Queue: 2 jobs
Job 1
Amino acid sequence: MALLHQHLTALPDPSAEEHAHSERLSALIRAEIARTGSIPFSRYMELALYAPGLGYYAAGTQKFGAAGDFVTAAESFPVFGRCLARAARGIVEQLPGSNILEAGAGSGKLAAALLNELAALGALPQTYFILELSADLRDRQATTVKEIAPDFVTRVRWLDRLPEPGFRGLVLANELLDAMPVERFKVDVDGVKQLGVTRRNDRFDWIEQPAPPTVVDRIEPLALAPGYVSEIGLAAEAWVRSIGERIEAGVLLLIDYGFPRTEFYHPDRATGTLMCHYRHRAHPDPLILPGLQDITAHVDFTAIAEAGADVGLELLGYTSQAAFLIGSGLDEFVRASDPSDVRAHLALTEQIKKLTLPHEMGELFKVCAFGRGTTKRPNAFALQDRRSRL
């Protein structure tokens, strides 16, 4: 605990306005805890990130880029979107009149990049849907598309709920599942405990409670050692099942950081994967700064593959981000780059290093694709296929 507090002292102090905002959300969480004495961590995470008008993703604060708390591939590396467009082209062309649905579109940069590149490839979707619950992010996405892809503004439509069954085309979720609420558990000598959140000494604190059967049934077969702490992404699994049921024909493409189950619950990963991001500083305490920091957990891709299978989706591919991008034509952009334009060529090579090197984003980030009613597997998985590891 002392080491944790030493780490936390390095975090920048929030402004007075940020303190007031966090206190309003804290009061909401305290009121819910007061009714029963504690709440599951998944509920705390849901409120901290998505409480209307107060949660991290529901309030109007800068989240992405240098002025925010973290960066994503879509925000920082234009070549990422261009590669994704190459992968999307095959899906759009295979299903004439199909659409693209991006869930959780961030600032809108990926949507704009995809639209511009797909237009250049002659493979524009009929409609580009963005599923976004935050009014602030919707406004920002609309502005971004208008600035970067003005010719395609009329093709973009926003949704505040999952589409009706019968969707045809590509569903894309880039760094979405990691931000969905997770159940947290601890293995004890007398069984599996669910970690909840309570109030103690005028602050939020952890509390151990008997775990529900949904958690016990998943964790007991893993035979984890006493003291092991980790997460289960039940909300992410439910989301995959829900969107999968709505796909009549097309592909669900998921990009996120995570592991197969054997690696996710590895003995060396005994404190779990939960991590928080505040002004480009990562730390492990989700119970401070509610509403001001991002809270994430890695994805158990084995569980995601099982969720897709539950609703009849076919697992088309699973691989590293590096292999997927190379399979999507990353080398073509390198060959087309002019080395005599030193600044542009250097910028491109730096992007590629960040996206593909194993110690950067290349290995930690994975790409997983499911399909229904499709006739061929995306070419992006031709370089490397890791489905047998799930």
Note: The radius of gyration is 21 Å.
Job 2
Amino acid sequence: MNMRPPALDLPIMFVEAGIAAGGVAILERITLALTAGAPTLLIGPNGAGKTTLLRAAMGLIPLTSGFVTWGGREASAPKQRAIVFQRPVMLRRSTAGNVRYALAAAGVPRAARAARTDRLLQEVGLAGLAQRPARRLSGGEQQRLALARALARDPAVLFLDEPTASLDPAATKAIEDIVRGVSARGVKVVMSTHDLGQARRLAGEIVLLHRGRLIEHTPAHEFFAQPRSDEAKKFIAGELLV
């Protein structure tokens, strides 16, 4: 297994980072370091700010206060980063054609695209569906194709926004297996989820958000064994955070 060299974009540092819209704070004074290593799982109820944090880390949403640095640099194009959204859009072409398009967009030479496409589809378990129209794939298959397109960028940091939402257990397991494989070769995965079971299975560390605030950031085993905050205790117990 080839391990990636250390990512130039890491650590990603949020310093007093805030995002507001219409006078409402979506993220409020977040100070957080995302470092190399096992996956970071963002958890919290709907509206906690998980998706906004991922988009801000990717550079897709500007902050209204504070700042973010990538590898110690405040101004940085997201060259080593990729993101998969909860409901990815499939291009009107074949499964393989979607991956070839992503490789072209990433600047991969034309002569190398066929072999890279084959490898990526093999990695996400879609080699047998290469010629199927992407829009005819199942929800789980489309999400795996979205992962292949993101991996076409050869990212050092991969952001995933609830990639298994609404998927059945078999499709969820397939996504989780891909996440483990990607992480094992040195790609930093930062992933949001509502599923505490998934967080237990995948996380090296947990970030709990609530109402745009950072509640806890701790190793996963500590979070589940000895939650520090009342919000964490309630969330783990299945109680509603309001």
Note: The longest helix spans residues 169-184.
